[in-house]
Amino acid sequence: MVKITDSVSWVGKIDWELRKFHGDEYSTHRGSSYNAYLVRDTKTVLIDTVWKPFAEEFLDRLSRFIDLSEIDGIVANHGEIDHSGALPALMERIPNTPIYCTANGVKSLTGHYHKDWNFQIVKTGDKLKLGKKELIFIEAPMLHWPDSMMCYLTGDNILFSNDAFGQHYASEFLFNDRVDQNELFTEALKYYANILTPFSPLVAKKIEEVLSFNLPVSMICPSHGVIWRENPSQIVEKYLEWAKDYQEDRITIVYDTMWEGTRQLAEAIAEGVRETAPQTEVKLYNLSKTDKNDVIAEVFRSKGILAGSPTINRGILTSIAAFFEEVKGLGMKKKKAASFGCYGWSGESVKILNDQLRASGFEVVHEGFKSLWEPDDKILDRARQYGKEVVKQLI
Ligand code: FEO
């Protein structure tokens, strides 16, 4: 338990061990937290719970803090299991307690748990009086699921934003002003790039809607990572930037290689890029050796990408194929791309890479660069020239 204000306490769980989230899809090098909050006024309300493996621990600690029967209501901002996982165990102890959620929240929670709980459907602008203070609900569909919502506590001026503004970042410090700022923003950007990018148009619209309410916000309490206590508008401004087809002066080269040929092409192309555009940061990632979520964050920051794979069995290497499967769903916009790769006889990889790039929403600016067999000095020189030319179209 950590006291946040006189009436709000953090009652969540810090998951220091977590290294993969959403099954094995998202890497969490710095762990995460499942933030739940207890609001005490005349009425007591619990906002969200924790992931199921920590349900009993959560309830044990919560019941050392208050008698669970004192909970007058539960706000389920989002039905995903990382936040609702302790609900079944909690509802066994306080079975008739109202659960405030959106209409889609009822579908999500019944879909997961198949229980006929006392759901109270709320919509944007609905209020729950707690005593002197009240909670105002704000639906936030697709931030991160159709059921998502936020709520705002008057008096304390706290926005409980659920997944939005979160980070997969474990810290005992709990507040943004106490943690390493590089780590915090690295994780916040990675989280946005890998989770929220598909919903960028909705992110910008929702933020503008919330700002139009003119509610003072002294703190943003997300459901993962640290609380934005110092200058909470800084993460709101970052989200507005990230939501609008964000890019820096960067090129990311992603590739995989069998016998080093495509790697040599990647490095020669990078040299060419650097010679033509020395101000542009160029980074190379072998996808079979690098965490794909970290690379996605790099691609998110880039103006353009170069994708490379040798041809194998008329196809491309699996690490790069899997990467595109993920990138396709993210729907990044206004990024340019080109491809390259070695081959021995049939040489389909560059065409497949171009198709994958287009299917992922990139503008392919060149037909690509192919090398028959291993590149010699002449081919590497041509690859360097390709880098020099193609970068002019990428940035
Ligand atoms: Fe943190 Fe969409 O759950």
Polypeptide structure, described:
Strand 20, helix 11 and strand 21 form a beta-alpha-beta unit. By secondary structure, this protein is an alpha/beta fold. A seven-stranded mixed sheet has the order 1-2-7-8-9-10-11. The model has no long low-confidence stretch (mean pLDDT 97). The chain has twelve helices and 22 strands. The structure holds MU-OXO-diiron. The site of MU-OXO-diiron has 9 residues, from helix 2. MU-OXO-diiron is lined by residues 78, 80, 82-83, 144-145, 163, 223-224.
Topology:
Elements: E1 2-3, E2 8-10, E3 13-15, E4 20-21, E5 26-27, E6 32-34, E7 37-40, E8 44-47, H1 55-65, E9 73-75, H2 81-84, H3 87-93, E10 99-101, H4 103-113, E11 119-121, E12 127-129, E13 134-139, E14 149-153, E15 158-162, H5 181-196, H6 200-212, E16 219-222, H7 233-243, E17 250-255, H8 261-276, E18 281-286, H9 292-301, E19 304-308, H10 318-330, E20 336-343, H11 349-359, E21 363-364, E22 369-372, H12 377-394
Parallel strand pairs: 8-9, 9-10, 10-11, 15-16, 17-18, 17-19, 19-20, 20-21, 20-22
Antiparallel strand pairs: 1-2, 2-7, 3-6, 4-5, 7-8, 12-13, 13-14, 14-15
